[in-house]
Specification:
The structure is a single chain. Strands 1-2-4-3-5-6-7-8 form an eight-stranded mixed β-sheet, sandwiched between helices. The longest helix is centred in the middle third of the chain and has 24 residues, at 137-160. It is an alpha/beta fold and 293 residues long. Helix 3 (73-82) crosses helix 5 and helix 6 packs antiparallel against helix 10. The radius of gyration is 18 Å and the shape is globular. It contains twelve helices and eight strands. A hairpin with a 4-residue loop joins strand 1 and strand 2. It has one domain (15-292): Rossmann fold (3-Layer(aba) Sandwich).
């Protein structure tokens, strides 16, 4: 599959929204929410521009959610998703101002119509995985107590509040994880002596072990695809996810790229990666349609 720009599509430009940036397609076939890794994901419109522009040229509206540094990963994941309703309203308004098609933005994002997708890279994938775990909370209550303990489970329940699950839910929203990294303080604080000191006072919630425990007990992730880059940084995470989710993943693919930062690129990028993402979208769509039928 080769990505070719549509000459009739307006130039690729990001517009600021309240909590994110959006490149609005005049005839969108779907909306892709993107979360990048630490540092580079703070400026996704710059560092991931080639990948995002390629997806825009294939007919998708792109919404980039800037990476937020925190040790409380539950709260970050929830805050990223809770703004979806506001984002949809802003997309509608901007599309109407430009005379673009805007019907899609008013449709139910959890319907099986395949309108909304999630794309993550590196640590941004952990936030998407946490949202997946929260999507069917009824099945996760017992697992949460066993995996993260009563105190963290109580804090999580209080943070969710009434009606929050509907806003957060990724039901019928496929996700694609690019060289995912599930990290604790190791990647956030690379200096070992400082990390040892901080670990006395600060804990990442959920930890690596807790995240994997929840995933192992989940019956979700049926619309999730993993694209690995054969990088050292993501090797452990990729191997674990492959082991835990073999029967659930929509697709798993390894690209011989070698570099964890292969997803980055401004004017130039990796076409093979773009094609792999598009193929994963097609597989997720087919799986969603099969399950709905």
């Amino acid at each position: 599959m080769t990505t070719m720009p549509d000459l009739d599509v307006p130039p690729f430009r990001f517009q600021p929204l309240t909590t994110s940036w959006a490149a609005i397609h005049p005839q969108p076939r779907g909306v892709i929410f993107f979360i990048g890794g630490a540092f580079f994901g703070t400026f996704p419109t710059v560092f991931y521009r080639y990948l995002l522009r390629s997806l825009y040229n294939q007919g998708y509206t792109l919404v980039t959610l800037p990476f937020r540094f925190s040790f409380r990963h539950w709260s970050v994941a929830m805050s990223l998703a809770q703004g979806k309703a506001q984002i949809r309203r802003e997309l509608t308004e901007l599309a109407q101002q430009r005379g673009y098609s805007h019907k899609l933005y008013g449709e139910d994002p959890n319907s099986p119509a395949f309108n909304y997708l999630w794309l993550g890279h590196s640590l941004g994938c952990k936030y998407i995985a946490l949202l997946e775990l929260l999507t069917d909370r009824a099945k996760q209550d017992g697992a949460a107590l066993n995996c993260i303990g009563p105190r963290q489970a109580e804090r999580l329940a209080n943070a969710l509040g009434e009606g929050a699950l509907e806003q957060i839910s990724l039901l019928n929203q496929p996700s694609i994880l690019l060289d995912p990294v599930v990290s604790d303080l190791d990647n956030a604080v690379p200096i070992k002596s400082l990390r040892t000191l901080l670990e006395r006072f600060i804990r990442v919630e959920p930890s690596i072990a807790q995240t994997y425990c929840l995933i192992s007990r989940s019956q979700l992730f049926a619309l999730t695809s993993v694209i690995a880059f054969t990088s050292q940084l993501a090797n452990e995470t990729v191997s674990t996810l492959k082991e835990l989710l073999t029967l659930q993943l929509s697709s798993f693919r390894t690209l011989p790229l070698g570099k964890h930062l292969a997803a980055l690129g401004f004017k130039r990028g990796n076409l093979e990666l773009v094609e792999a993402v598009l193929e994963s979208i097609d597989k997720a769509k087919a799986r969603l349609l099969d399950s709905d039928g």
